[in-house]
Design a protein that fits this description.
By secondary structure, this protein is of the alpha/beta class. It has helices spanning 67-84, 93-98, 102-105, 130-134, 155-161, 166-181, 189-198, 209-219, 263-278, 286-291, 298-309, 313-326, 331-343, 347-354, 364-377, 381-394, 398-410, 416-425, 430-442, 446-459, 464-474, 500-519, 523-539, 543-556, 561-573, 577-590, 594-606, 610-623, 628-649, and strands at residues 27-30, 38-39, 45-46, 62-65, 112-115, 119-120, 185-186, 223-232, 235-244, 249-250, 254-259. This is Tetratricopeptide repeat protein.
């Protein structure tokens, strides 16, 4: 299975064809032949499960990892593979059998999940206006009040008062993010819309189970989530089922219900149930799932969903701006707002919106790409180059490197090296040859410029700009030369389109490479690396992702004090005080540390245990007397102690005017 092979040869078992000898992952694999393994030119097995592209070939779907897109990542993988195997460049059969090779390290494939919009099964006659349902005039999500109406609505009136259809798209939005956070690969809304269009169906189409299976086949999904919701008054019931596409099995109903104001916690809890169905041994708590949306206002989330589903561009912009105003920390809304402003050519505002995406977010790479484009179009070439360089350090795809080169060239510097890198990654793209030609000509290499321009024309003979430029440079016509200052110099071409599927494929492979590298480390070093990753995620509010990393660190080293302290902070943020205290105490039992002391201080302060809180913060300040958080907690403790002392000195408040004293009023049979 790991036999050596050369360029152009088919692997006998999985029909792999190697395209470029420089690229260890440039392969095409027929899924039906060998779904979970490909082999690079060194004979090293690589798990490609979940790396997919939509081909529209029915059952003969192809999994493609393209050299043109992944050359930089492939170089990284090859180097790390050699390092992990001591420079051998080949995985032995013994290593594979013992589970120590690259294939085993990367074997944690991510199942592909398609979450469909939920069916709205609400009976309009069952919905009551807010005033009748709650006795208040406070607005509820999706419910618009009619000041002229004060009683229960008729069916026709209810249709005007209530519009809960936005929940159809809210459900897959939340479920996708939660399942992605715990290791699954949910297909995006864009993927789903593409598949619907491919099947000739409108984007608002609610598929039957048979059509859902066709969508799953089109998208190579292994699982489908179907669901519905129904509201009665302000009570909401969510129902979901999980379909195993491979085994053709459907789970029983998974149900969550509660007040409509608790929609996000309900969806988070439903996501936990689905994750447990997918992985019964899932070690992430329900509380962490529920707390994942703790900082998001429901009305802001509603505006965000309306913003991404509205057909009118101005209405989309209005809803998204409203969402970011109501909830400034709602990353998804900022990202969608940035894309909308980018499409409307409001590049400065788009760049500011994209900058709100934190580094650990699933959309961070795409956000940085569009932020770089926005900065280029608004003339901020220095920051544009920085944005593309940030992506290139993680994922050096050719379009990213090319745009970094454009940013460099627009500042009057030589970007030739970057264009060469992009061209080497994808020699079939004529734009990279054109850009290198322009850059070489500007920097005095006329012969090299002509060669690159000729190559661009070989790839696309209809490129009139390149043909006119070559004619000019060849001197066959009396066309003013751009370098003489009397003609407009050609500009390098910007790669505007973001290939989301390619980026996700590459990012997934990068995650697998990193997982393989970490898996090869000794337990204590592995825990240290996982702790570092978890802390970064926790700092950005990604509780689910942080908990997974900390639990993995504890699995690698159960006595790791930092991992226990991190878990204590995760449990504290999730609202599980008992588990947070237990983890903090376990951390301090292993080693005195500041983070665990601070968690205990906050827990004791919240419980009004002033003496214990003083002891905790005192210990923290012994470890770091200048720590700002500990100093602020000490002030808060003393303020709470003073407030409690004043309260104990104040006499009890007299009964309210006109009301009898409850203690003096006795029942007749007690007199």
């Amino acid at each position: 299975m790991t036999a050596q092979w050369r360029r152009g040869q088919k692997h006998p078992h999985c029909h792999v064809i190697h395209v470029n000898p420089l690229c260890p992952l440039c392969v095409t694999v027929e899924r039906e032949m060998q779904p979970n393994a490909a082999y690079n030119q060194n004979g090293i097995g690589i798990d490609v499960t979940g790396i997919f592209s939509i081909s529209g070939e029915g059952r003969r779907r192809r999994v493609t990892t393209c050299c043109a897109l992944l050359i930089g990542l492939c170089t990284l993988l090859a180097r790390q593979t050699l390092q992990a195997q001591g420079g051998s460049g080949r995985e032995s059969a013994t290593d594979t059998a013992n589970g120590t090779g690259l294939t085993n390290a990367m074997d944690a494939s991510r199942p592909i999940v398609l979450v469909l919009p939920f069916d709205n099964q609400t009976d309009p006659a069952s919905i009551m206006p807010v005033a009748a349902a709650t006795g208040t005039g406070e607005p509820q999500p999706g419910i618009q009040q009619d000041s002229a109406h004060s009683g229960g609505p008729t069916v026709s009136q209810a249709s005007e008062l209530v519009n809960l259809d936005w929940i159809r798209e809210a459900a897959p939005e939340i479920l996708d993010r939660r399942l992605n956070a715990v290791g699954y690969l949910p297909l995006t809304r864009e993927d789903r819309l593409y598949a619907l269009d491919h099947l000739g169906l409108p984007e608002t189409f609610l598929p039957s189970r048979a059509t859902a299976m066709r969508l799953a086949e089109t998208l190579d999904a292994e699982y489908i989530v179907i669901g519905s919701f129904a509201a009665e008054g302000t009570h909401l019931k969510l129902t979901a089922r999980l379909i195993d596409v491979t085994r053709l099995r459907m789970s029983g109903e998974l149900v969550e219900s509660g007040d409509i104001s608790q929609l996000l916690p309900l969806l988070n809890s439903l996501a936990w149930q689905l994750a447990r169905k997918l992985e019964p041994n899932l070690d992430v708590s329900r509380q962490t799932f529920v707390a994942a949306s703790a900082g998001v206002h429901l009305d802001a989330f509603e505006q965000y969903i309306r913003g991404i589903t509205e057909r009118n561009a101005d209405e989309r912009l209005r809803h998204l701006k409203r969402a970011t105003t109501l909830s400034p920390d709602l990353t998804e809304a900022w990202f969608a707002l940035g894309k909308e402003e980018f499409e409307q050519q409001d590049y400065e505002d788009a760049a500011a919106a994209f900058a709100k995406t934190p580094p650990g977010d699933p959309s961070a790479l795409e956000s940085d790409f569009y932020r770089g484009l926005s900065l280029i179009y608004s003339g901020n070439y220095q920051h544009a180059g920085d944005a593309f360089a940030t992506i290139a350090r993680v994922l050096p795809l050719p379009e990213v490197v090319n745009n970094e080169g454009v940013s460099v060239s627009r500042r009057g510097q030589d970007g030739s090296a970057l264009y060469r890198q992009a061209e080497a990654s994808d020699p079939t793209d004529e734009d990279y040859h054109f850009n290198l030609a322009v850059s070489l000509h500007r920097n005095g290499d006329k012969a090299g410029a002509k060669r690159e321009l000729e190559q661009a024309l070989k790839l696309r003979a209809t490129d009139n700009e390149a043909r006119a430029l070559l004619t000019n440079w060849s001197g066959t016509e009396t066309v003013p030369d751009a370098t003489e200052g009397n003609a407009v110099e050609p500009l390098e071409r910007i790669k505007r389109n973001f290939n989301g599927a390619a980026f996700r494929q590459a990012a997934l492979m990068l995650d697998q490479v990193e997982a393989a590298r970490i898996a090869a480390l000794p337990g204590d070093q592995r825990a240290t690396q996982l702790n570092r990753d978890a802390r970064e995620k926790l700092n950005h509010g990604l509780l689910l992702e942080a908990e997974r990393e900390y639990r993995a660190a504890l699995a690698a080293d159960s006595h790791n004090a930092e991992a226990h302290a991190g878990m204590a902070e995760v449990e504290e943020r999730a609202g599980d005080s008992a588990d947070a205290r237990e983890q903090a105490q376990a951390s301090l039992a292993e080693q005195l540390n500041l983070d665990a002391d601070l968690v205990l201080t906050r827990l004791d302060l919240a419980a009004d245990q002033i003496a214990a809180a003083r002891a905790d913060v005192g210990q923290a300040l012994k470890l770091d007397s200048s720590n700002r958080t500990a100093r602020e907690l000490r002030k808060a403790i003393e303020a709470r102690a003073e407030a409690m002392r004043q309260k104990s000195l104040d006499p009890p408040a007299p009964p309210a005017s006109g009301l009898p004293n409850a203690s003096a009023e006795k029942a007749p049979n007690q007199r």
